[in-house]
Amino acid sequence: MKVLVIGGGAREHALCRSLSLDPDVSALYCAPGNAGIAEVAEVRPVDALDGDAVARLATELGVGLVVVGPEAPLVAGVADRVRAAGVPVFGPSAEAARLEGSKAFAKEVMAAAGVPTARSYVCTTPEEVDAALDAFHGAPYVVKDDGLAAGKGVVVTEDRDAARAHALGCDRVVIEEYLDGPEVSLFAITDGVTVLPLQPAQDFKRALDGDEGPNTGGMGAYSPLPWAAPKLVDEVMESVLQPTVDELRHRGTPFSGLLYAGLALTGRGVRVIEFNARFGDPETQVVLARLRTPLASVLLNAANGTLAAEPPLNWHEDAAVTVVIASHNYPGDPRTGDPIEGLAEVAAEDGPDTYVLHAGTRREGDAVVSAGGRVLSVTATGSDLAQAREKAYKAVARIRLDGAQHRTDIAAEAAAHR
Ligand code: AMP
Ligand code: GLY
Question: Ligand 2, from 185, 204, 219, 274: best to mutate by most atoms within 8 Å of Cβ?
């Protein structure tokens, strides 16, 4: 099977890496890709938001499967265009991707499906904002831009004025109850009927150690979660994933692709923080590192509506950790174009279980330079989290990128407590 992956971040690098190791995959393309992806797939230029261009490329290449990585193309209807061109595609329609594209829509679906989530109000006027901010038990305040904002539309703050200012800067906001408790990301592959959960992971959203600093797209992740209840996945399947998939199918807008549930494990039970309509980044890097089942046929069965035929997924016992190296000033306007050194040393010295996935990089002559906010996602597997962590940080230390930043505490607590 020939496969085309759309996107060019560390998540797409992780997807391409897994697909490149799958004996069923005879040719692998990625558009637009990045400098690291070019080592495992043939990269092609494309405007990932242009559905017709993506469909044309897929037809030209004669691929049997297109996998759409990021949310923006999905919300823009790229999967619909590819499907209309007769090519199987892993990724939801624009209608179903509204689950991520509109927080208000996600809330409405959850209410209809009886899925547990934070109580919330959708506000468009200053009066509604003030009423909503006072509706829960004071601080912390949670204010979410209704639309897509690359992980930067959410403000959680003790400061009512800051919460109010963020709300008034958005056209439409969701203001909701603060959820206390550890966060878990659980992905499920679905064809709109059958739901196949992956293993849970935890993501580190804040820029700085100790969960300080601004929200980011994610600064690191690990899997498995040794502290989580063994029945967590079953429970989330039953209370969140299956009812959401069923609800969207009943509405006539079935969701096929990757359903990502961002969850808070509160004292009163599991609550959904958000849904995403695609693989999460950086959680994908650790979840796929642990997946033993070859990926292509699972994604193709989801695309074709034949997921029920898929046997249960197999997992490595190993733990996985990924540490994101970000540009100077990220998540603010990042500095790019800086040379990255040390990649060859990691490849030569650290063994096959430690590898660098590229997020925002491009090739400039012989050099690889930074080309985005998140630059690299350094990933390692080991017999437990402590070992995976040690290996990942050893590789991080080899990488030189002027002004770069990374968190030093990814998976530290989970590794210490076992
Ligand atoms: P989101 O983009 O919805 O995932 O929000 C980004 C981050 O904000 C989440 O990962 C949480 O850390 C935090 N957050 C979002 N909603 C809530 C909530 N209701 N209560 C507490 N924290 C939240
Ligand atoms: N890791 C958060 C996200 O992918 O949205």
Answer: 185
Q: Could you give the angle at which helices 94-101 and 242-250 cross, rounded to 10 degrees? A: 130
Q: Are residues 337 and 349 in the same domain?
A: yes
**Helix-helix angle 10-20:283-290, to 10 degrees:** 10
| Spacing, Cα 265 to ligand 1 middle (Å) | 12
What end-to-end distance do the CA atoms of the chain give, in Å? 40
Whether the CB of 106 sits within 6 Å of ligand 1: no
**CB of 175 closer than 6 angstroms to any ligand 1 atom:** no
Cα-Cα-Cα-Cα dihedral sign, residues 198, 199, 200, 204: negative
Asked if residues 31 and 45 have their Cβ atoms less than 8 Å apart, the reply is: yes
Amino acid of residue 381: T
Residues 29 and 49 in one domain: yes
User: Token pair of 17, please?
Assistant: 């890496």
Instruction: Clarify whether residues 299 and 369 are in a common domain.
Output: no
Q: For residue 205, how far is its CA from the centre of ligand 1 (angstroms)?
A: 9
- What's the pLDDT score for residue 171? 86
**Enclosing domain of residue 20:** 2-90
Residues present in the chain in total: 418
Rounded-to-integer distance, Cα 279 and Cα 307, Å:
17
CA distances (Å), origin 375, targets 70, 170, 237, 307, 323: 16, 29, 33, 34, 11
Contacts of residue 160, defined as CB under 8 A and 6 or more positions apart, other chains included, come to 133, 139, 141
What's the gap in Å between 281 CA and the centre of ligand 2?
A: 5
- Residue 293 belongs to a domain with what CATH number? 3.30.470.20
Residues 297 and 345 reside in one and the same domain? no
What confidence tens digit (pLDDT) does each residue in 141-182 have?
Answer: 999 988 777 656 888 999 999 999 899 988 889 999 999 999
306-328 average pLDDT score: 96
**Residue 164 CB partners (closer than 8 Å, separation 6+):** 129, 130, 133
Same domain, 206 and 273: yes
**Could you tell me which residues come within 8 angstroms of residue 315 by beta carbon, excluding any fewer than 6 positions away?**
199, 290, 291, 292
Backbone angles phi, psi at 176, to 5 degrees: -140, 170
Sign of CA dihedral 25, 28, 34, 36: positive
For 46-62, the pLDDT digits (tens) are 999 999 999 999 999 99
Regarding whether 303 and 188 lie in a shared domain, the answer is yes
Amino acid at 261: A
